[in-house]
Structures are given as structure tokens and as C-alpha cells.
Amino acid sequence: MNYDARRLGLYGVLGALVVFYLVPLEIGLVTSLKANPLATLPFAPPTPEGFTLSEWTRAFGALQSGLVNSLLLAVPATIFSALLGSMAAYGLTSLDWRGQVGLFTLFLAGIFIPYQAVLLPVSRFWAVYAPLEEWLSVLWLLPVLEEYHGELLTLVITHVAYGIPICTLLFRSYYKELSTEMVEAAKLDGATAYTIYRRVILPLSVPMFAVTLIYQFTQVWNDLLFALIIMGPGEGAPVTVGLTNLGSSLSDPGFAVKMAGAFIAALPTMIVYVVFGEQFAEGVAT
Amino acid sequence: MFDRIHDAVGTGKGDDEQRVDARTDGGTATVSDEDDGGFFDSVSRDFLGSLPFWLPPFVLMGFFVYGAIGWNFALSLVNVQQFNDPNYAQLDFEQYARAFGDPTFIQAAQNTAVLLVAFTLACLVAGLLVAILIDRHIRFENTFRTVYLLPFSLSFVVTAQFWLWLYNYQSGLVNVVTQAVGLGRYQWISNPQLALGAVVFALIWQFSGYAMVVYLAGLRAIPDEHYEAARVDGASTLKMYWRVIVPQLKGATISASVVLMVFALKAFDFLYALAGSYFPPNGTDILATMMVRQAFSAGQRSYAAAIGIMLFLLALAVIAPYLTYQYRRGEL
Q1: Is-contact B167 A236, C-beta < 8 A?
Q2: Which stretches within chain A are classed as H helix?
Q3: Contact at CB, B53 and A91, closer than 8 angstroms
Q4: Which of A 195-214 lie inside 8 A of B, CB atoms?
Q5: A115: which chain B residues are within 8 Å (Cβ-Cβ)?
């Protein structure tokens, strides 16, 4: 086989792989636009007379509040876990005692905990020992705020707690590679640990914040388990919970509305992924 | 991920020494530092100064991770159902014994093992092959990589909806294809014999891109000379990769497989979304789904806690040897 034919074969295989990875999405997209998805081949685009946007409207209507809840959940949870991860990483890299590595290992192991091992205590803790929506009941009298925001706060704190380990790992490995000269110089100048963090470390952390925020946002947005168990399918349910309940009935499998819903629920993470692909790949590869 | 862990843990000690050196240099250079109490004080000052930074995250994380696991373990030693309060006066391992006599548990454990092994191996092989293809100085490399990793960015809940439709008996793509090539139609999800394989295949679709990214980073770290040397020796491309390149990807293989196994243990979201209930499709029950069902649907809280602890031990068995290995390698 000569070089050109080989090259052609290589691109042929790569193209086939593109089809493999994209075909489920393509099918989902065309299906969501069909009035009767069972009538045509799954991958065929909708015919002019079979074309409809009503499934998208229906899915959007059903998932609207879930989308808002997911945003209210994912944005603060992402910011706080990144911030706390950065603080922990800074505290653990500027620490000069032997327990440092041991302590860091405890943070690390937290990454790999199967949530099933903590689910019962966590749900019990929030339900019985720290019912935030009762404690903060005064707040729900305010305009805009509703009682289910207390449940969302519960979920935010939970996600922050379980997001800290991975954020700490990402930031710590980044801080290890930073030059220590500036920190040492600032120390000799008598700068406090806080000043060094605020003036030296934080400004240098911006690229890593991008990576961590993107990674963590995707994780929190995509989660189902905590939302399902800690909150249940109430008013505050995020979009993933809404999606699992969408479209199923005995008479109609509702594939079109499910596909439309899947895209609506996935849209924020897809946008983040396409726009910040580099940072996403970096967060993933580490 | 594990390269970073290795770096972080491995360089920990070296950095300590480095920084202590810098500190003592500073200390001897300025007399006032010595007057303040010198080395020891500067260490404890640093320790105290760093406390506000790592202690709050540590307390929060420690409570939810280690506190909760401890609590869960205590729960697994009693016998509490529904919303009763546990009686901690009488502790035993009865729930664990019960698990090993429960055919549902044995089946779920088997499915978990099959899922772990088949899914991880297939993702590694697929990821490695795709990474090798991408690494051959192709055009539009970033575009290909972006497409292959796209499913990984999606939620389990979203991909479950797609695959539910793809596996549909009447009109799903998979059956359209198998029908067209003369294999006929199958109940991919509702046939217990096929369901687990169908789930594994869908998960491979979602996660092989991740293995690809990790392997690609590993391939990029191999110096070009290794390829050239093998080529000068007249090795075929296949031989070159098998003998020279793949052995150097040991680190990437280990880190990718650990992360993939952890994802496989967490496949609850996917199975829940497939069925829309705590009962996953027949034949796909894994420990993760069984635990949640026992806890929040059947109300068998202590039994569920015991299953959770066994899942935790399983994860630990995957992680601990590797962490120790990396830690030792870093120390040496």
C-alpha cells in the first residue's frame, strides 16, 4: 500500500469514528423534530409535512423550572468548590510540616468515594439534623425566595463538599509547578499568608480556575443521584430529575419529547464543552 | 488525573526540603529572624498561617466524606428499617452475612464485576487505538478529538435517553441495522441476557473518548527518537507499537483504568434514567442501584448501608494499591 492510500484509509477510519460518536446525537436531533418518530427511519431528517417544533416547546415547558434550578445549583456549587479547593491547595503547598502529604492523601481519597457509601447518612443529616429550609424559614417570607431554595442550598453545600477533593487536586498540582520565588520574596517582605494568597497566588490561578470551574460545572450539572435522593422530585428538582420523568406514559413512548428534552438538558454543558474544549480536555486528562 | 497525583505526592517531600532550605538561608542572612525564635517559630507560624486556608475545606469535606462513611458503617452494624431510630447497643455483622446469602446481592455483585472488567478493558482498547490514529500527524486533529470526547461531557441521564431510543425494538437504529444485515431484531434492554451488554456498549460509546485523551497525552510524552529507533531497526508499525510504545503507556493505562472503574461503580445515574425508576432493567442490577433501591425504596436502611460499605471497600481495593504504588515511587 502506498502512502496516499494509507492516508486515505486513516482518514476513512477517523471519519467512520466521527459517525459512530455523533450518530446517536444526530438521531436524537432529527427525532426531536418529527411529529411521528416511529414512521420513518430513525436517522432520516423529518419530512416537510412531518416536521414540528412542538416537542421542543413541550420539553422546554416541562424542564423550564428544572433549568433554572440547575443553574441556581451549579453556579454557586462550582464557584465555592473551586474557591475552597484553591484555598486548601494553597494551605497544603505552603505548609511546612510532615503531615502535609498525609493530609493531602485524605483529600485525594475523597475523589473516589462511591456516593452510595455516604448517601444514607447525608440524606438523614439534612432531613433530621440540619433541615435548612426550616431553619431559614424567615427567609422564605421574602419576595423571590421560596421554600425549595432551602433544599437547593442543601444540595449546593453537598456538592461543594464532594467537589473539594478534585478541585484541591487540580489546584495543588498547578501550585506545585508555580515558581516559588515570588512567594518566598513576599514572605521575606513580611507578607502574611493571606496577602500572599490574595496578591500573588490568586492572580496566578486564573487559568486553573477556568479548568476547574468548567470541570466542576459539568459534574454538578450532570449529577442525578444527589438531586434525586436529597431533594426528590419536588419544586426544586434540577433538570436531570425532570428529564428522567419526561415523556414516559403507557400509551406513548414519547421519544421525540425525550430527545428534545435531552438536548435542552445537555445544552449548557455542550456549549461549555464546545467553547472551552481545551480547558475541558485538560481538566479531564489530569 | 493520576499523573498529577503522582507529581503532587511525589514532589511533596522534595519541596519541603527545598523550602526549608530557603527558610534557613533567609534565617541566617537576617539576624532579626533568629531573634524571633528562628527556624522552629517560622515553621509553626507557617502552620498556623496556613490553617485558615486548608482547615475549613478540610472540615467540610472530612465531615461529608469520612464522617458520613463512619456513620454509614455504624448504620450497617445494626438492624434498622424504614424511619426507625437505630439502636447502637447491639452491633453485629448480620447485614453482611445477609448479603452473601441473598441471590439478588450475588447477582448484582456479579453484574458489577462484569461491568467493571468488560467496560474498562473495552474503553482502554478503543481509547488506545483511537489515540494512535489521532497521533499520526493528522489534519483537523482538534476537531476529531473534540468530537470523540463530546459524549463524555454529557450527563448519564441524557445519554440514557439517546440509547433508550437507539435500542428501541420497533424503530431504534440498532435494530434497523441488525435487521438490515439479516440478524433480526432484539429486545436489547428488556431481554435480561442482552441488557448488560447493551448497557456496557452504550457506556463505551460515552467513555472511550476519555481513555483516548489520557492515552494521547501519554503518547505525546514519548520522545520521537523511540519511534525513529524502532523504524531504523526495521520494525513494522504494528510491532513498533506493541513492543516499543505500548509498554511505555503503563502509567496512562493505570490512571485511565482506575478512573474508568470509578465511573463504572457510579453507573447508577445511567441505569436509573434507563428505567425511570429504582428498578433498573432486568439483568443490569449492580451494587450501586441495589443499594439505592434498598435504602430509599425498600426502606432496608441497614442492609443498604452494608452494601454501601462493600462498594466503598471495592473502590478502595481499586484505588489503594495504586495510590500506595505512586506514593512509594514518589518517595524513592
Answers
A1: no
A2: 3-32, 54-93, 99-109, 119-124, 132-135, 148-177, 181-188, 193-195, 202-204, 206-222, 225-226, 239-244, 255-275, 277-285
A3: yes
A4: 197
A5: 266
Find, in chain B, the residue whose alpha carbon is nearest to that of A28. B162
Domain holding B62, by residue range, is: 2-76
State the DSSP string of B249-260: GHHHHHHHHHHH
B229: closest CA of chain A, how far (Å): 20
Query: Which residue is listed with cell 455483585?
Result: B109
Q: Report the C-alpha gap between B189 and B187 in whole angstroms.
A: 6
Q: Is B89 inside a domain boundary? A: no
Per-residue pLDDT of B71-127, as tens digits, reads 999 999 988 776 677 777 778 898 999 999 999 999 999 999 999 999 999 999 999
* Domains of chain A and any CATH numbers: 65-285 (1.10.3720.10)
Considering the domain boundaries, does residue B169 fall inside one? yes
Within its chain, how far is the Cα of A201 from the centroid? 25
Global model pTM greater than 0.90: no
Whether residue B44 is found in the same domain as residue B117: no
Chain B hits for A218, Cβ within 8 Å: 153
Q: What angle do CA B203, B206, B207 make, to 5 degrees?
A: 85
* Residue B251 CB-density burial (10 A; 0-12 exposed, 13-18 middle, 19+ buried): middle
Give yes or no for B237 touching A (CB within 8 A).
no
Inter-chain touch A27–B266, beta carbons under 8 Å: no
Complex-level ipTM: 0.89
Amino acid letter, B234:
G
At B137, the amino acid letter reads H
Q: With an 8 Å Cβ cutoff, are A265 and B157 in contact? A: yes
